[in-house]
Amino acid sequence: MKKQFTLLLGLLLAGGFCIAQSQKIVTDAPSPAYPVATGNSVKTPTKGGGEIFWQTTFNWANPANERGWELPAGWEIRDNTDNGNVWTWRNDTIKGRGTTQAAPDFFVSGNDGYIAVPMSEYNFRDGVSTNVTSDTYIQTAGINCTGKSSVVVKFNQYFRLCCSNYFLDMLVTNDDGIHWASYDVRYGVTGNNFTTERFRNVEINITDVAAGLPNVKIRFYMHGMALYFWMIDDLTLSEAYENDVKLEDYWLDFDDGSGSTTDQINYWPLSQMGMAGATSGTVGSYYMKAAFLNNGTADAENNRLNMKILKNGTEIFNENSAGTTIWPLERDTENLANPFLANDYGDYQFEFSGVMDNADENLSNNKALMRFTVNDTMAHRADFTAENFKSTANWTGGGNGGDMVCVDYQLFAAAEISSMTAFIGNFTPAETPQFQYVLMKDIDGTWEELLTTDVVEMDSSKRQSWVTLPVVKDGETEFLTPGLYKACVRMWGVLEGDENGTQGMNVGLDLTTKYSGSSQYYTGDGAWHSLAGAPLFMIGINLNSHGGPTMAPVTFNVSLVRQIANGEFHPGSDQVDVKGFSAAWNTSAAMTDPDGDGIYAVTVNDLPLNQKLEFKYRVNGVEENYPSTGAYRNYVVRYWNEINDLYNNGVTNGIPMEEMIGSISVFPNPTQGSFSVAISAPKPAEAAIQVLEMTGKLIWMKNLGHVSEHTERLDLNLKPGVYFIRISAGTGVKTEKLVVN
């Protein structure tokens, strides 16, 4: 490994470390940090240490322009196909075939505009469906990075892709487009799926192609997509922190006893763990590793992977990897020397983080969490939350009645299967769908149907819910021997005019669990199709075992801070409780707030494990409206249960949120230092002032108490740049931009 500091590249090479990506080049994973805040495009002197020197919030509205907005000087938008399907400025909701999408909440400045390619609108002009693919880019004016020893690009993005051959690229040039460095910012998200949380707040170090150069241009290029959208907001360039190590990827690999590992599993029976592997290792041990990027300007001395493991909320494991020094913009992978074997029932939380001898100045981008539950019956790769749904439609050979979607499992000890379960998604009633579960086994290299459940009619009671069905037993085949299995859902539907039928329904997908190659599908022509790298179907098996706990405590926490501020809840006289409505729990429990922070809590003991709770919070016996009258909050009981909610989802019944703050003034603005904040509310309420950096980092806060009119003089010695002054009063929140020269 050679230390190098390159400021000018005549040719921008496509080098670098790749994690599951084939394009450029640099594959920096986005930071999971709080989304960046927003501001006008400004330039400030060199500051370093994470300071922003160029930024835009895309506040391009211009009522004098016939289209209502104006592209800043030097920027460029182009459609390479001349079909008019271009990047555009928006401050409203994108609509069209299959799309209704406003600026998401994590676009902090979404209300002043964002840029987007609304393909669903372009391919549904005047109500006529077309299928023209995108080939368009938007490009910044030249950005002066002279005097900057490092450059980091950050932006917020949200996209949904369809249907294949889709590309979302960020390109950088320092020589007016003669050469380009390309960065894939799709991050492997597949078709029909929305951007997962991990990839919404992008952070890419472009020091090797931008630092010290006077004319850096950034291009966002979308091509290949015919539907849905890509939207971007809050684009910033900053200098890197001196000490900043970034956790780019992480792995929790389950020992399958064959000398290799089988990726993450969420729920696994204790009876299938702890035996000696067939060739090496101990079945069920978890191996932990992580990939790090030194995103700072100084060497990361003795960088290590730190692993903390909590069992039911209590730390039981804390170890570091051996460690290595990583030079700026270099990468390294750290492995924990010893695997971890859970030897008891419980919910285990694995906390990944990077630590080094230097003090990391940006801790938000080097942490990650993964979970694993050891139980007595469930073998489930997926978690309990479906991010999307899918059948075999639109896949090779798929879309016909009788097709199956499947998930791989390997058993390590003899067991009796009792049932199978899957998260059933949506359905088309007109196609009268039916389904059953099928267990396949690898017998001498051939997949054979071993067990099934009865065929079940699909209806609305099963829509978007876990459905567990007992397997049909014959006294023999339900006793499983060690080996490879596939848990499958077979689906049939009737489609008029199609003798092959359809499926008429779909199965839940887990998009957040880390896995590779564990999903397949089977078509009626007898062909198996691998889905390596594709979404994980939510299908599992349940073993007939016992010995684990059958009950667990659940702690409910509900915030009434907004209701208290708005005068709708009076501590000391009003009462709040949580009421259960399911067979698993149909009583109530009074909640208290001993520390007076407005968050009421109660722990209910001995609730049945793996059962769904239906509940609502009540004030003086009156149920909250959320989620809606007649519906309930849902939760599946685990070993470790901490539920955190907002009463009525934060909605109050008093003064509407937008009216709780009559006005907010920040003056002088721009300022060279000190400034004042004046607020006015229609009636007294609990109020607070926050000052945030462009990154969303809170740098100052003051609670003002119960006020309606207030002026606060501030002198915070702020460096030049754009900041946000956020005022809360009761349920209302307003934000003003502050420019410091």
Largest sheet: 8 strands, antiparallel
The best one-word shape is globular
Instruction: Tell me the number of strands.
Output: 48
CATH class of the largest domain: Mainly Beta
Provide the CATH topology of the largest domain: Jelly Rolls
Beta-strand portion reads 35-45%
Count of the domains: 5
Give the CA-CA distance, first to last residue. Answer: 42 Å
Detail the poorly predicted runs. Answer: 1-47, 655-659
The CATH architecture category of the largest domain equals Sandwich
Number of helices: 3
Q: How is this structure best described in words?
A:
With 741 residues, the chain is mainly beta. The chain has five domains: 52-238, Galactose-binding domain-like (Jelly Rolls); 245-375, Immunoglobulin-like, CATH 2.60.40.10; 383-543, Jelly Rolls, CATH 2.60.120; 551-650, Immunoglobulin-like, CATH 2.60.40.10; 657-740, Immunoglobulin-like (Sandwich), CATH 2.60.40.1930. 2% of the residues lie in helices and 43% in strands. It has three helices and 48 strands. The strands form nine sheets. Strands 21, 22, 24, 28, 29, 31, 34 and 35 form an eight-stranded antiparallel β-sheet that branches.
